[in-house]
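Everyone, carefully examine this protein record:
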Amino acid sequence: MAKIELCGVSYVYSSKTPFEKTAVNNIDVTIEEGSITGIIGHTGSGKSTLVQMLNGLLQPTSGRVLFNGTDIWENKRMLRDLRFKVGLVFQYPEYQLFEETVELDIAYGPKNMGLDKAETAKRVSDAVRFCGLDESVLKKSPFELSGGQQRRVAIAGVMAMTPEVLVLDEPAAGLDPQGRSDIFGGICEYRRKTGATVIIVSHSMEDIARYCERVLVMSKGEVFAYGDCDRIFERSDELEKIGLDIPQIARVLRRVEEMGFSFDKKIYTVGEAYRALIPYIKGGGGPAS
Protein backbone atom coordinates (compact mmCIF):
# COMPACT_ATOMS: atom_id res chain seq x y z
CA MET A 1 0.00 0.00 0.00
CA ALA A 2 1.30 3.44 -0.94
CA LYS A 3 2.03 5.70 2.03
CA ILE A 4 3.36 8.67 0.07
CA GLU A 5 3.01 9.35 -3.64
CA LEU A 6 4.68 12.11 -5.61
CA CYS A 7 2.82 12.72 -8.86
CA GLY A 8 4.57 14.94 -11.37
CA VAL A 9 6.04 17.06 -8.57
CA SER A 10 8.23 20.06 -9.40
CA TYR A 11 9.54 22.89 -7.27
CA VAL A 12 10.95 26.16 -8.58
CA TYR A 13 12.74 28.67 -6.35
CA SER A 14 12.31 32.40 -7.11
CA SER A 15 9.84 31.66 -9.87
CA LYS A 16 9.46 34.34 -12.57
CA THR A 17 12.54 36.24 -11.42
CA PRO A 18 16.09 36.40 -12.83
CA PHE A 19 17.09 34.00 -10.02
CA GLU A 20 14.61 31.27 -10.99
CA LYS A 21 15.96 27.79 -10.33
CA THR A 22 14.23 24.43 -10.74
CA ALA A 23 15.24 22.34 -7.72
CA VAL A 24 12.92 19.38 -8.36
CA ASN A 25 11.56 18.51 -11.79
CA ASN A 26 8.60 16.25 -12.56
CA ILE A 27 9.12 13.60 -9.87
CA ASP A 28 6.94 10.47 -9.88
CA VAL A 29 7.70 8.22 -6.89
CA THR A 30 5.67 5.90 -4.67
CA ILE A 31 6.90 5.04 -1.16
CA GLU A 32 5.28 1.96 0.31
CA GLU A 33 3.89 1.83 3.84
CA GLY A 34 6.31 0.39 6.39
CA SER A 35 9.30 0.58 4.05
CA ILE A 36 12.67 2.16 4.75
CA THR A 37 13.86 4.19 1.77
CA GLY A 38 17.14 5.97 1.20
CA ILE A 39 17.54 9.10 -0.89
CA ILE A 40 20.97 9.79 -2.35
CA GLY A 41 22.40 12.35 -4.74
CA HIS A 42 25.20 14.88 -4.97
CA THR A 43 24.88 18.30 -3.34
CA GLY A 44 22.26 20.35 -5.17
CA SER A 45 20.44 17.34 -6.59
CA GLY A 46 17.15 18.33 -4.91
CA LYS A 47 17.06 15.89 -2.00
CA SER A 48 16.34 18.38 0.80
CA THR A 49 13.79 20.27 -1.29
CA LEU A 50 12.02 17.00 -2.03
CA VAL A 51 11.70 15.90 1.60
CA GLN A 52 10.43 19.33 2.68
CA MET A 53 7.48 18.82 0.35
CA LEU A 54 6.52 15.56 2.04
CA ASN A 55 4.98 17.28 5.07
CA GLY A 56 3.96 20.54 3.48
CA LEU A 57 6.85 22.77 4.50
CA LEU A 58 7.16 23.55 0.80
CA GLN A 59 4.25 23.52 -1.64
CA PRO A 60 5.04 22.05 -5.06
CA THR A 61 5.10 24.52 -7.92
CA SER A 62 3.27 21.82 -9.85
CA GLY A 63 2.17 18.24 -9.23
CA ARG A 64 0.64 16.56 -6.19
CA VAL A 65 1.92 15.04 -2.95
CA LEU A 66 -0.40 12.33 -1.64
CA PHE A 67 -0.42 11.01 1.93
CA ASN A 68 -2.54 7.88 2.38
CA GLY A 69 -4.07 8.65 -1.00
CA THR A 70 -5.10 12.24 -0.22
CA ASP A 71 -3.53 15.37 -1.70
CA ILE A 72 -1.93 17.13 1.28
CA TRP A 73 -2.76 20.54 -0.21
CA GLU A 74 -6.42 19.70 -0.80
CA ASN A 75 -7.30 21.28 2.54
CA LYS A 76 -4.64 23.61 3.94
CA ARG A 77 -6.24 23.48 7.40
CA MET A 78 -5.11 19.84 7.63
CA LEU A 79 -1.43 20.67 7.18
CA ARG A 80 -0.85 21.14 10.91
CA ASP A 81 -2.07 17.60 11.63
CA LEU A 82 -0.04 16.28 8.71
CA ARG A 83 3.17 17.57 10.26
CA PHE A 84 2.54 15.41 13.31
CA LYS A 85 2.03 12.39 11.02
CA VAL A 86 5.01 13.07 8.75
CA GLY A 87 7.84 14.02 11.10
CA LEU A 88 10.86 15.71 9.52
CA VAL A 89 14.26 15.76 11.21
CA PHE A 90 16.49 18.39 9.61
CA GLN A 91 20.23 18.01 9.15
CA TYR A 92 22.02 18.95 12.40
CA PRO A 93 18.72 19.03 14.35
CA GLU A 94 20.57 19.69 17.62
CA TYR A 95 20.83 23.32 16.52
CA GLN A 96 17.06 23.52 17.06
CA LEU A 97 17.14 22.55 20.75
CA PHE A 98 15.86 25.38 22.92
CA GLU A 99 14.12 24.21 26.10
CA GLU A 100 15.60 24.31 29.62
CA THR A 101 15.69 20.54 29.98
CA VAL A 102 15.87 17.50 27.72
CA GLU A 103 12.48 16.37 28.99
CA LEU A 104 10.79 19.65 28.03
CA ASP A 105 12.44 19.64 24.61
CA ILE A 106 11.26 16.12 23.76
CA ALA A 107 7.80 16.87 25.19
CA TYR A 108 7.34 19.99 23.06
CA GLY A 109 5.76 18.15 20.12
CA PRO A 110 3.36 15.95 22.12
CA LYS A 111 2.19 18.99 24.12
CA ASN A 112 1.43 20.83 20.90
CA MET A 113 -0.61 17.83 19.80
CA GLY A 114 -2.82 18.46 22.82
CA LEU A 115 -1.90 15.24 24.64
CA ASP A 116 -2.40 15.01 28.40
CA LYS A 117 0.49 14.79 30.88
CA ALA A 118 0.37 11.01 31.23
CA GLU A 119 0.46 10.34 27.49
CA THR A 120 3.13 13.00 26.97
CA ALA A 121 5.30 11.42 29.67
CA LYS A 122 4.88 7.99 28.05
CA ARG A 123 5.80 9.39 24.62
CA VAL A 124 8.92 11.04 26.06
CA SER A 125 9.98 7.84 27.83
CA ASP A 126 9.48 5.73 24.70
CA ALA A 127 11.38 8.21 22.50
CA VAL A 128 14.30 8.34 24.94
CA ARG A 129 14.49 4.55 24.83
CA PHE A 130 14.35 4.42 21.03
CA CYS A 131 17.26 6.85 20.81
CA GLY A 132 19.43 4.99 23.31
CA LEU A 133 19.43 7.72 25.94
CA ASP A 134 19.38 7.11 29.67
CA GLU A 135 16.41 8.68 31.47
CA SER A 136 18.90 10.35 33.81
CA VAL A 137 19.49 12.96 31.09
CA LEU A 138 15.86 14.14 31.16
CA LYS A 139 16.43 16.76 33.87
CA LYS A 140 19.64 18.05 32.33
CA SER A 141 19.96 20.99 30.00
CA PRO A 142 20.34 19.73 26.42
CA PHE A 143 23.32 22.06 26.13
CA GLU A 144 25.22 20.06 28.77
CA LEU A 145 25.21 16.99 26.54
CA SER A 146 27.70 15.81 23.95
CA GLY A 147 27.03 16.47 20.27
CA GLY A 148 25.91 12.88 19.70
CA GLN A 149 23.55 12.99 22.67
CA GLN A 150 22.08 16.29 21.48
CA ARG A 151 21.43 14.73 18.07
CA ARG A 152 19.57 11.86 19.73
CA VAL A 153 17.52 14.25 21.84
CA ALA A 154 16.49 16.18 18.74
CA ILE A 155 15.47 12.99 16.93
CA ALA A 156 13.62 11.81 20.04
CA GLY A 157 11.62 15.04 19.95
CA VAL A 158 10.24 14.05 16.55
CA MET A 159 9.78 10.39 17.48
CA ALA A 160 7.75 11.45 20.53
CA MET A 161 5.01 12.60 18.16
CA THR A 162 4.94 8.98 16.84
CA PRO A 163 4.76 10.06 13.21
CA GLU A 164 3.53 7.51 10.70
CA VAL A 165 6.35 8.64 8.42
CA LEU A 166 9.77 9.56 9.83
CA VAL A 167 11.91 11.59 7.43
CA LEU A 168 15.55 12.22 8.37
CA ASP A 169 17.92 14.49 6.46
CA GLU A 170 21.50 13.28 7.08
CA PRO A 171 20.74 11.98 10.61
CA ALA A 172 24.30 10.83 11.28
CA ALA A 173 26.23 13.69 9.65
CA GLY A 174 29.44 14.51 11.50
CA LEU A 175 29.18 11.65 14.01
CA ASP A 176 31.84 9.04 14.74
CA PRO A 177 31.19 5.36 13.81
CA GLN A 178 29.71 4.50 17.22
CA GLY A 179 27.48 7.57 17.12
CA ARG A 180 26.28 6.63 13.63
CA SER A 181 25.51 3.11 14.77
CA ASP A 182 23.59 4.38 17.80
CA ILE A 183 21.50 6.80 15.72
CA PHE A 184 20.59 4.27 13.05
CA GLY A 185 19.97 1.57 15.65
CA GLY A 186 17.38 3.82 17.27
CA ILE A 187 15.75 4.61 13.95
CA CYS A 188 15.47 0.91 13.08
CA GLU A 189 14.08 0.14 16.54
CA TYR A 190 11.45 2.87 16.14
CA ARG A 191 10.42 1.47 12.79
CA ARG A 192 10.29 -2.09 14.15
CA LYS A 193 8.13 -1.15 17.14
CA THR A 194 5.77 1.28 15.40
CA GLY A 195 5.61 0.01 11.82
CA ALA A 196 6.42 3.52 10.61
CA THR A 197 7.59 4.34 7.12
CA VAL A 198 11.15 5.71 7.23
CA ILE A 199 12.90 7.91 4.67
CA ILE A 200 16.61 8.67 5.09
CA VAL A 201 18.62 11.23 3.13
CA SER A 202 22.32 10.43 3.30
CA HIS A 203 25.62 10.93 1.48
CA SER A 204 26.91 7.68 3.01
CA MET A 205 26.50 4.78 0.62
CA GLU A 206 27.49 2.43 3.44
CA ASP A 207 24.61 3.62 5.64
CA ILE A 208 22.12 3.39 2.77
CA ALA A 209 23.25 -0.14 1.87
CA ARG A 210 23.14 -1.30 5.49
CA TYR A 211 19.82 0.12 6.59
CA CYS A 212 17.61 0.79 3.55
CA GLU A 213 15.54 -1.55 1.43
CA ARG A 214 15.01 0.77 -1.53
CA VAL A 215 16.99 3.71 -2.87
CA LEU A 216 15.93 6.83 -4.73
CA VAL A 217 18.83 8.35 -6.67
CA MET A 218 18.46 12.01 -7.62
CA SER A 219 20.49 13.98 -10.12
CA LYS A 220 19.92 17.57 -11.25
CA GLY A 221 16.50 17.64 -9.61
CA GLU A 222 15.22 14.52 -11.34
CA VAL A 223 14.90 10.83 -10.55
CA PHE A 224 17.97 9.08 -11.91
CA ALA A 225 17.01 5.66 -10.54
CA TYR A 226 14.66 4.11 -7.99
CA GLY A 227 14.60 0.51 -6.83
CA ASP A 228 16.01 -2.15 -4.52
CA CYS A 229 19.48 -1.47 -3.10
CA ASP A 230 21.12 -4.35 -4.95
CA ARG A 231 19.84 -3.25 -8.34
CA ILE A 232 20.82 0.36 -7.75
CA PHE A 233 24.37 -0.37 -6.61
CA GLU A 234 24.88 -2.79 -9.50
CA ARG A 235 24.80 0.32 -11.70
CA SER A 236 28.10 1.54 -10.27
CA ASP A 237 29.44 2.90 -13.57
CA GLU A 238 26.30 5.01 -14.06
CA LEU A 239 26.41 6.26 -10.46
CA GLU A 240 30.01 7.35 -10.88
CA LYS A 241 29.07 9.42 -13.93
CA ILE A 242 26.73 11.55 -11.79
CA GLY A 243 29.25 11.98 -8.98
CA LEU A 244 28.19 9.11 -6.72
CA ASP A 245 29.80 5.85 -5.73
CA ILE A 246 29.02 2.40 -4.40
CA PRO A 247 29.90 1.39 -0.81
CA GLN A 248 33.64 1.01 -0.24
CA ILE A 249 33.29 -2.60 0.87
CA ALA A 250 31.71 -3.43 -2.49
CA ARG A 251 34.83 -2.06 -4.21
CA VAL A 252 37.05 -4.18 -1.96
CA LEU A 253 35.03 -7.32 -2.69
CA ARG A 254 35.11 -6.60 -6.41
CA ARG A 255 38.92 -6.60 -6.21
CA VAL A 256 38.82 -9.85 -4.22
CA GLU A 257 36.67 -11.42 -6.96
CA GLU A 258 39.22 -10.32 -9.56
CA MET A 259 41.76 -12.36 -7.58
CA GLY A 260 39.70 -15.49 -8.23
CA PHE A 261 37.35 -15.69 -5.26
CA SER A 262 33.65 -16.13 -5.94
CA PHE A 263 30.55 -15.22 -3.93
CA ASP A 264 26.90 -16.19 -4.26
CA LYS A 265 25.68 -12.58 -4.53
CA LYS A 266 26.79 -8.98 -4.75
CA ILE A 267 27.90 -7.64 -1.39
CA TYR A 268 27.38 -4.06 -0.18
CA THR A 269 27.83 -4.11 3.62
CA VAL A 270 30.66 -5.02 5.98
CA GLY A 271 28.46 -7.63 7.70
CA GLU A 272 27.73 -9.39 4.42
CA ALA A 273 31.43 -9.27 3.51
CA TYR A 274 32.39 -10.84 6.83
CA ARG A 275 29.90 -13.69 6.36
CA ALA A 276 31.10 -14.28 2.81
CA LEU A 277 34.81 -14.28 3.66
CA ILE A 278 34.78 -16.21 6.94
CA PRO A 279 34.61 -19.67 5.28
CA TYR A 280 37.77 -18.85 3.30
CA ILE A 281 39.50 -17.49 6.43
CA LYS A 282 38.56 -20.48 8.62
CA GLY A 283 39.44 -22.98 5.90
CA GLY A 284 42.71 -21.28 5.10
CA GLY A 285 41.78 -21.60 1.45
CA GLY A 286 42.14 -19.38 -1.55
CA PRO A 287 40.55 -19.13 -4.94
CA ALA A 288 41.33 -22.70 -5.80
CA SER A 289 39.88 -24.17 -2.59
User: Anything to note?
Assistant: The mean pLDDT is 90. The first helix runs from residue 47 to 54. The longest strand covers residues 2-13. DSSP finds eleven helices and ten strands in the chain.
